[in-house]
Automatic annotation (TrEMBL):
Residues 1-115 form the C-type lectin domain. Pfam families: Lectin_C. InterPro entries: C-type_lectin-like (IPR001304), C-type_lectin-like/link_sf (IPR016186), Ca-Dep_Lectins_ImmuneDev (IPR050801), CTDL_fold (IPR016187). This is Layilin-like.
Length: 128
């Protein structure tokens, strides 16, 4: 049963995920104020980052979706703490941030949102 970091493919999915994680969202101890999703900056692999190269975000799964809801002033590819910049994407929670997208340092411990293939109930029919 393989899973992957979730694709947030539309507004409804974004709202449903935020509803699910709202209770523990703004929490430094449990999730460091954010949850990883399956969007990343594919233009900056750690070994070949080129300064000034524009970010190019893509989903790790179902790459055709281009839905993105960035927090104000994001993505900013902040490289103050890591010269590789920020190449992974979280749903960002702070008292003033409510789960919009933010690029973040990939090594940060965070919560995460995974998704799994929907299993068709018909697969098990006839086995009982
Ligand atoms: Ca970046
Ligand atoms: Ca950022």
């Amino acid at each position: 049963m393989g899973g992957w970091l979730a694709t947030v493919d539309k507004k409804k999915t974004h709202q449903e995920i935020r509803k699910l994680i709202r209770a523990q969202a703004d929490n430094k101890v449990c999730n460091n104020y954010g949850f990883w999703i399956g969007l990343h900056d594919a233009s900056n692999p750690k070994t070949s980052r080129h300064k000034g190269q524009p970010d190019k975000f893509s989903w790790v799964h179902e790459q055709c979706h281009d839905f993105q809801v960035w927090e104000t002033n994001q993505p900013n590819d902040n490289d103050k703490q890591d010269s590789n910049g920020q190449n992974c994407v979280q749903l960002w929670y702070r008292p003033s941030k409510k789960g919009n997208f933010d690029d973040e340092y990939c090594g940060e411990p965070k919560g995460y949102v995974c998704q799994f293939e929907e299993v068709c109930p018909c697969i098990n029919q006839g086995l009982e």
